[in-house]
Amino acid sequence: MNKDQQGTAVSGRTYAIMPRPSGMGSGWTLVMFEDGEEAGGGVFPVPEEHPEVGMGWWNAMPVEERAYWLVKAESAVPADARHAYLLAVAYDDAMDTGEDWIGNS
Questions:
Q1: 37: enclosing H helix or E strand
Q2: 54: Cβ–Cβ under 8 A, 6 or more apart, which residues?
């Protein structure tokens, strides 16, 4: 599922995942709906971490994975690749929560 898309309705439940507003930090906002009414949600930020964590992540990856994350980041900077990875993880967490929401009606 791409950003700004909604999950599939099951028994009147849906969800939407949107980028967090600028100035709030990087990540995603999940909004859950029941019968068209907002019924909850959550924030899935990209965590701040020490640069050494990102360096270890980068150094442990095969070249092909490095290339993948650089393309995702649209950058040649390893720190940007790490951010793209963390953004993807946060999105997956938001989507998993949304899918649990629509599956538990």
A1: strand 37-45
A2: 78, 79, 82
